[in-house]
Amino acid sequence: MSSRNEILKRVRAAQPTLIPMPADLTSTAAGDVHKFTEVLQGIGGRVVLMEPDEEVPQKLKELFPSANRVVSSIRSLEAFFLHDHAQLDHHSLEDVDIAVIEAQFGVAENGAVWVTEQDTIIRVLPFIAEHLVVLLDKASFVADMHQAYQRVAYDAYGFGVFIAGPSKTADIEQSLVLGAHGPKSMTILVRS
Amino acid sequence: MQSSRDNHSTLAERFNKDEARVSWHDQTLWWIRQKRDKAAWSLGEEWEGLRSQASQIKAHTLSNLSGYLEEFEANAIANGAIVHWAADAKEHNEIVHKILQDNKVTQLVKSKSMLTEECHLNPYLETHGIDVVDTDLGERIVQLANEAPSHIVLPCIHWKKEEIGELFHKHLATPAGNADPSFLTNAARIHLRDKFLTRRVAITGVNFAIAETGEFVVCTNEGNADMGAHLSDVHIACMGIEKLIPLRRHLGVFLRLLARSATGQPVTTYSSHFRKPRQGQQLHIVLVDNGRSQQLAKEDFRNSLKCIRCGACFNTCPVYRRSGGHSYHTAVAGPIGSILAPNLDMKQYADLPFASTLCGSCTNVCPVKIDIHDQLYKWRQVLTKEGYSPKTKTVAMKTMAATLSKPGLFSFAGKWARRIMRIAPWLVNNKMNPWYKQRNMPAAPKQSFTEWYKTNRNKDKK
């Protein structure tokens, strides 16, 4: 505690006269699924548009025919829902092939989706699975990060994350490799 | 290993021995700089507005840093985090060690944190019997090789894939001779996944801390910070006090700039906002000064604290690209490191502000508009005044000053220099002349500008 007061004292003495905070940048552009799709594909993700009569479980079977363990944080996906999430050891999700979660909205300029702890129930879920599938409504797109933060400016989440594509690295001679520590692919299922 | 007496030019000279490697290093970084340009230009006119906005938000924050630190602390505590304050590197390391002792832990995973590099946390913990595993792929590579990162965003940019293949063969038992990046990355994935699943403590860095909410944001592409933090019982986040920004919505500005400036991506794969500990988890935040308040007090150098550690100034710097990160002998290399390091130790880092051509490219690409090359120039003046400028440079500068102040001597010296370069080029093209290293001297002109002017002026008159 002694360092705290000492540091604050030094900072107070060092900082210049107050410089005003600039007014916020705003944007009026509209976000849409087309721009989002183009950007996400550019960074290794994919967007699949679902027909109104298509069901998620069938779609998953079609996209990932050989998946063994599929789990979801979405209650309505009864067959995949993590019913035992309250007791579950999170490490046990280590062999999950596909995690299915719902995102709150997508950001067209960078292909990111916003997800909080409420959406994933278990924080590590979208990171530990081999493949990530995200459900999103067609109407849920903003143009850029300014609009994104307008939406979440006062949300009281414990943990929230923008996810843009599969986990990746280019640390070895700048060769892009998908699937560094997290999912090797990211699929967005857009519901009309 | 380098000795403590090696300066930038000695270390750069060593790096320059392998010319093919220097060209490769240079071109790789220039390619990343070009990706950055493309990403920046894709935003059109918005880009410059974002840079100004980011710079102004940081200027405002620094002018009320004490207030924002207190606000951040209060909100973080209300969120359930435990906040620690460290005046210097030593105290930071002791705080982290104490948390480990309290939890009876001797092994941990760590995601990228240049602050912990600056504080030399790894060697400190290792002497206390703690096993630290760096989980960023590039950082793991240099850790296995017992090296420090050579770049803040691309830690092993100086390594060739064949060398990484050999390193992994030795440490991770991959087949000899396999240098395929996908294969090696997957080997590291398997190796590190085991660490994520078995370590109870995770250390992460912090990209931004929000005063308004007491939360902090960590940006990665690999997902290693999240794998570590979400699977741990204890999460320790270490941050310099300059990481503060006032409001959550300010992240919109900074996240639009960070990845585009760093690697040319529209955003990092993961931008993780940690506000409250997971149920049953401990969340510690260590706020570190380590010279930052001292830098804040210096009007000429204060702006360096705006840095968001994107590395754009490294990638564009003609000196960094050709001298390599290790030639800077400090945790944060490149142009920004050269204006940060002398603040910590003027004597040890007196050479760094001179490791620049002052071309200004760093300033032009900086997403928060730090006047990097002006600060490099100002540091040279401070260092010279304090008597820390390199000796050979001091002698050369004094000779130069004397020659330039006497027109007769200047024209005499010029005439003889041109004559010597024509008649006896070996007198300048030799190892005694530092300008000859890795360069050819230009051909000497037959006459000086003054001579040319006199001749041509007379021609006109006729």
UniProtKB/TrEMBL annotation, chain A:
What residue stretches are annotated with the LUD domain? Answer: 92-190
Q: Which domain of life is it from?
A: Bacteria
The record's InterPro entries line, in alphabetical order, gives: FTHF_cligase-like_sf, LUD_dom, NagB/RpiA_transferase-like
Cross-referenced PANTHER family: LACTATE UTILIZATION PROTEIN C
Q: By what name is this protein known?
A: Lactate utilization protein
Q: What is the lineage of its organism?
A: Bacteria, Pseudomonadati, Bacteroidota, Chitinophagia, Chitinophagales
TrEMBL record, chain B:
Keyword Metal-binding belongs to the record = yes
Q: Which domain of life is it from?
A: Bacteria
The record's keywords, sorted A to Z, are: 4Fe-4S, Electron transport, Iron, Iron-sulfur, Metal-binding, Repeat, Transport
Q: Tell me which SUPFAM superfamilies the record gives.
A: 4Fe-4S ferredoxins, NagB/RpiA/CoA transferase-like
PROSITE patterns membership: 4FE4S_FER_1, 4FE4S_FER_2
Q: Which InterPro entries match?
A: 4Fe4S_Fe-S-bd (IPR017896), 4Fe4S_Fe_S_CS (IPR017900), FTHF_cligase-like_sf (IPR024185), Helical_ferredxn (IPR009051), LUD_dom (IPR003741), LutB/LldF (IPR004452), LutB_C (IPR024569), NagB/RpiA_transferase-like (IPR037171)
Query: One short Pfam family name for this protein?
Result: LUD_dom
Q: What region holds the 4Fe-4S ferredoxin-type domain?
A: 298-327
Q: Does the keyword Membrane apply?
A: no
PANTHER family found in the cross-reference section: LACTATE UTILIZATION PROTEIN B
Would you tell me the protein name for this molecule?
A: Lactate utilization protein
Native organism: Terrimonas ginsenosidimutans
